[in-house]
Amino acid sequence: MAMSPPPPRRAPSSRPTPPLPDDVMREILLRLPADDPACLVRAAAGCISWRGMVSDPSFAPAYRLRRGAPPMLGFLYDDRPAGEHWISHFLPTATSPPLAARDRQHRHALDSRHGLALFYTPRSHAHFLVCDLVTGEHWEIRADPKCYKIIWSNLLQEMHSLRENEQISCNASVLCAKDGCDHRDCHGGPFLVALVGSDVEGDTYMNHAAVYSSATREWSDVTSVEQENVIDGTGHSAVVGNTVYAPCVEDDSVVVYNTREKKLSVIAAPLEVEDQEQQPYLDLMGLEDGMLLFASVVKPRLYLWTMEAGPRGAAGWARRRVIELGPLLPLPVLEDKSDVSAVGFAEGVCVIFLKTRVGLYTMELSSGKGKKVHRGYINKVMPYMSFYTGAWGRLPASNVASRAVVDATTI
C-alpha cells in the first residue's frame, strides 16, 4: 500500500510577534541589574518606546526604590611608595564613570559613603576634597585653624612633621546631610565632613571632634572631652543618621560623635570569648542591618560580630557568625602565618574585602561566594556605592528613521 505524502509544511507567519504591553515592559526594565548599568543603556537605545520608559521622570525613583542600596561601582584604595606622595586609585567592579576610574596624584582617600568620596589634599590650597565620582562635581574644603589639633595631633609629632609627610592623624567621614534621605540618590545634596581625633595635653588624653557643613560652608566649634580611648585615624568609620562611630587603637571601644548635638561619648564592644588570649583585635567595618559590624580573622575562619548602641551608651549583641575561609583562599595563604585581615565592607550589598599576601579577595556574606579582585597588598578599601548608567554619553537610537538620540544619564 502506497504511503500518502506528508502534509505540506505551513509557511511561517509573516506577522511580527505582538509587543509586550507597556506596563509589563516597564516592570522588566525595572528589574534589570543595577550592578550592570550597560543593560539600561542598551535598553534605552533599543527603540523609541523603551527609551521613553527609561527617560520618564518617574522611572529613576522607581528603579532605585526596587533596591535596598545602590550597587558597588568599584572601590578606592591608596598607594604611597617610600618617600613619595599619596596616589589614590579606583578599581571598577561594575560599569563605572570614566571620571572615577583613574588615579589621583597627591590625593589620600579617607572615606566613601552616600555616593561621595573624601580625599585629603596636602599639596593643594584646600585641605580636603569631596567628590561625586558619577557626576564629576567636587567641593574644596579648607580646615578652620581651630581644627588643626584634630587633623595634626601632637601624639605623633615624634614621628616627624605630619604636614611634611602628607599625613593626618584623625578619622574623617563624609555623609549625606539631606533630611529624610534614603541614600539611594544623594547627588548634589548637602553633605557633612566629620573629623574625630585624639590629642594629648600635658598628661591628659583628649578626644576632639568638629563637623563641616556644605550648606553653611562653616566648621562647627570643636567638641572636646577627656578620655583614655585613642582614636584610630586609619580605621573605618560608620554612620547612623547624624552620628559617626570611629574605632579606637589597641582596644575594641568606639568613640561616638553626634554631629547634630555636638556630643562625644564612648561605647565598648560587647566581647564574650572563652579564651581571652585567642581573641584578636576587632576591626570596625561599617553597618549591617543598622548595627555596627566588626570583623576579625583567625585562620581559617572569618569572625563577624554585630552590635547596636543602646540607651546611655550601652552596647548589646545582635548576632555572631563564623565563616570558613578554606573554600575561598588558597591553601598556602591559610597555612602561612602572614597577615590575613578584613580591610573593607560594602554596606547594603554585604560584600567584605580580605587582604592576603597574594592579593585582595571579596566575599559575599549572603552566599559565601568569593573571588580575587586585585593582586596587590591593600590595607584599606573604601567601596564606592552609587547608581550609574552614563558610560557612553549619547547613543544613537536603533530606529534609524527617527534619527533620534538618547542621553545616557545618571539613574
TrEMBL record:
Name the domain of life this protein comes from. Answer: Eukaryota
Q: What are the start and end residues of every segment in region (Disordered)?
A: 1-21
Note the InterPro entries from the entry: F-box-like_dom_sf
Return the protein name. Answer: F-box domain-containing protein
Q: Which species is the source of this protein?
A: Triticum aestivum
Q: What is the lineage of its organism?
A: Eukaryota, Viridiplantae, Streptophyta, Embryophyta, Tracheophyta
